[in-house]
Design brief:
- Pfam families: PseudoU_synth_2, S4.
- Belongs to the pseudouridine synthase RluA family.
- GO terms for molecular function: 23S rRNA pseudouridine(955/2504/2580) synthase activity; RNA binding.
- With 311 residues, the chain is an alpha+beta fold.
- The chain has 3 domains: 60 residues, RNA-binding S4 domain (Structural Genomics Hypothetical 15.5 Kd Protein In mrcA-pckA Intergenic Region, Chain A), CATH 3.10.290.10; 75 residues, 2-Layer Sandwich (Pseudouridine synthase), CATH 3.30.2350; 143 residues, 2-Layer Sandwich (Pseudouridine synthase).
- It contains 8 helices and 16 strands.
- The strands form 3 sheets. Strands 5, 6, 7, 8, 9, 10, 13, 14, 15 and 16 form a 10-stranded mixed beta sheet that branches. Strands 1-4-2-3 form a 4-stranded antiparallel beta sheet, with no helix packed on it. It has a two-stranded antiparallel ribbon with strand order 11-12.
- A hairpin with a 2-residue loop joins β2 and β3.
- The radius of gyration is 21 Å and the shape is elongated.
């Protein structure tokens, strides 16, 4: 399916001020994979006011963006998502108002498509709401469930992303850790370095050259060889809780990337079929503190069942 028979010249709405160019193009070329967006940028086919631009170029509003004709579906492309998947994400809507759409994202659904994933949460919601402007505020790992914020307005997106950078959003997770945590509270202050392996897999490690990262763990209960904890993160690095917990000697149960194989086998015997990590609470205030939000996503039933079997 062609996006058009020729070049499109699109004037950037003032409401898009501050948006990255790659995200703007994703909104213009519905269904286009990020790899295609980066390719047409890299080859200079996209121009902003007649000049080449990088994916992370911030738009100011009022620019003219040249968008080349592209093919959005090739033989073997996935086409439309399955109705059952759309129903699943629609049922996951936790809250909605004029600025935000909040999902209780199920485990197994990525935040966005790419790297072999056809449809993430944002693509599915855009399929359900084709006439709305929806943008991801942040991301959750594919295997992590819980609160995922989507902005319906550019102003809300900019404000929330600023708060994310400045620590204005309190994020709390629930996790089952392998091992017996003895201290009621402990923190991990360890910089994280991200790398991408040859196959495209992302790996993160503690490294002095990495970005500052801070996680606070609070013990809720012990279950034999496992510990149930709440984790408050002051930074939002990729795989932060998973890497920090493993670094502390208590990897997240069900984590096939950073976890303990023997502990994961024990967890499987009591029915754990996924990563035991859930984004449970987000607290923040929009409008310079005038509109407070406290969003809560309950622990999924399949994780509650694991805790019941561990008793």
């Amino acid at each position: 399916m062609s996006a058009g028979s020729g070049v499109k010249l699109v004037k950037v709405d003032p409401d898009r001020a501050g948006q990255r160019l790659d995200n703007f193009l994703l909104g213009q070329l519905k269904g286009a994979p990020r790899s295609l967006i980066y390719r047409i940028l890299r080859t200079g086919q996209v121009r902003v006011n007649g000049k080449r631009a990088k994916p992370d170029t911030r738009l100011e509003g009022g620019e003219e963006v040249r968008i080349p004709p592209v093919r959005l579906a090739e033989p073997g492309d996935p086409g439309k998502p399955a109705p059952a998947l759309l129903q699943r994400i629609e049922k996951a809507i936790l809250h909605e108002d004029r600025d935000l759409l909040v999902l209780d994202k199920p485990s197994g659904i990525a935040s966005h498509g790419g790297s072999g994933i056809s449809f993430g949460a944002i693509e599915l919601m855009r399929q359900l709401r084709p006439d709305q402007s929806l943008e991801l505020v942040h991301r959750l790992d594919r295997d992590t469930s819980g609160i995922l914020l989507l902005a319906k307005k550019r102003s809300a997106l900019s404000e929330l992303q600023r708060m994310m950078r400045e620590g204005g959003i309190e994020k709390r997770y629930l996790a089952l850790l392998s091992g017996q945590v003895r201290k009621p509270k402990f923190s991990v202050d360890a910089p994280l370095e991200k790398s991408v392996l040859q196959g495209g897999e992302r790996m993160v490690r503690v490294d002095a050259a990495g970005k500052e990262s801070l996680s606070h763990f609070s013990l809720i209960d012990r279950y034999g060889d496992f510990s149930y904890v709440e984790v408050k993160i002051d930074t939002g690095r990729t795989h932060q809780i998973r890497v920090h917990s493993a670094y502390a000697g208590f990897p997240v149960a069900g984590d096939d990337k950073y976890g303990d194989k023997e502990a994961n086998q024990k967890a499987k015997k009591v029915g754990l079929k996924r990563l035991f990590l859930h984004a449970a609470t987000l607290s923040f205030a929009l409008g310079d503190g005038e509109r407070p939000y406290v969003l809560n996503a309950p622990l999924p039933d399949e994780l509650k069942a694991v805790l019941d079997r561990l008793v």
